[in-house]
């Protein structure tokens, strides 16, 4: 249709209003300002799908409303058990699931993309099961809200999860018992002075809440659960479990770090469930998992780093970029949330993240640390295997291992990333120490953070599965990096390592800045010792671990718990008055495992999330026959 033309000679609008030229100009200026404002406001709406619904035809809006929806089928294909529960079939990470599964999923209805939809879906699943089994509401309360068969899962484990072994080395046992005593001391102190708070302040003998967990409490309880269980601290484990049952309140209001809540709370609860089969841990993990879903309501589906757990706000509490190590460290836990709930939404969210990452161009094959959740493009070219980047790489290789080596996409991403890191970031100092520098738009910063020291263990873990000609090379690289991290400890007066150490201006493996001299009970170095020990059985890793135990006892143990120190280069250190929850989750657990036989939490059966919470490898399909629809 041709638009009607203005009859010649008629004044145009707004001239028709009888306005003079300057007035017309002002009027038009005002009008265009107003339009820009309205249009901009629409873009700023938290849920971009609302905007799309206004402007796009219904069907197009549905397709565009969530970038994750475009990956929905691949996520479901990848995350869910393939077909009915034929025992040997892998559960996830196949790019092409059989048609049968796709049909089952289609029959199960559309995926839930929002927390509300997810809740609805969980409720619907519950109703369906109730009909299937005739369970009463009371029975349903205690019954798993999924079709996961815990007993079947336990039978699938290849090794017992804890306990001593006959004929083991008595020295290793004695050292393990010492570490168990440290754990008991850390727990008892927390219980006495800070029970229910997030961390213990051991000097002032009170609790710390902080602002990372959005009103959630008991970070130390949840982080410590599996360590208490593994160390057979039965009474203490029961105390922790009781707190989760009676006092762990998820109806909180506040801004939380999506990453921290995921690795500590979701990871801790999932591990506690898999180790013990106690339903309370599973239901809390699923409930909390649902509360995290609104963080993914961004134009790309890349989650924002901060989410308000209590309101309807949509995860837009923080401005700016999303951080690689944060949105890249959800995969393991979210696949397990889908596994336990039967709800594909969790897996879809993380598979979409992978899709976005695979689409965006990588400078020199490297993954920068900051990505815009709005455009899906990198925001800065800072690359690091330490803070901001670290656990993204860790989760690639662990996703592959957790999938029982089926998730070849993750393996390829890991292999490619490691190759690029080695080429562009790994360097050798004049004194012969291998380190991983940071990369800023092509310029190297010859610094390694304590956080980056996890990479010795990660590279060793991956080396086992590298191609024949690369295996030894990667084992050597892992050993060299672990050695460098040990040097950062050995060169300090306390025999504990600084937060960051440098390889410039004649310095090697030491902090050069006052602000980098602190040690906050971090685990990464002993984490690498644990993996290196298990994979090489070179006794030096146990010796190095024991040096750390002695240093912790000497410099960090105070009257009411363990504290970080402000300067590792002085033997009269000042304490920072904080017993971090990861000290109980990770540092003490890895030290303990270093002196256990290999089949305690065997690497055949478990992968550790980045907070050292063990999650099972999917050897088999744990769904019950009756429950498959
Ligand atoms: C832990 O919370 C996790 O290991 C995380 O990945 C980063 N670092 C801290 C402990 O240092």
Automatic annotation (TrEMBL):
Residues 65-78, 85-98, 106-121 have a biased composition (Low complexity). Residues 65-150 are annotated as: Disordered. GO terms for molecular function: calcium ion binding; mannosyl-oligosaccharide 1,2-alpha-mannosidase activity. It is a single-pass type II membrane protein. InterPro entries: 6hp_glycosidase-like_sf, Glyco_hydro_47, Glycosyl_Hydrolase_47, Seven-hairpin_glycosidases. Its EC number is 3.2.1.-. GO terms for biological process: carbohydrate metabolic process. Disulfide bonds join 453-485. The active site is at residues 260, 390, 499, 524. It is found in: Endomembrane system. Residues 122-132, 140-150 have a biased composition (Basic and acidic residues). Ca(2+) binds at residue 610. Keywords: Calcium, Disulfide bond, Glycosidase, Hydrolase, Membrane, Metal-binding, Signal-anchor, Transmembrane, Transmembrane helix. Involved in the maturation of Asn-linked oligosaccharides. Progressively trim alpha-1,2-linked mannose residues from Man(9)GlcNAc(2) to produce Man(5)GlcNAc(2). This is alpha-1,2-Mannosidase.
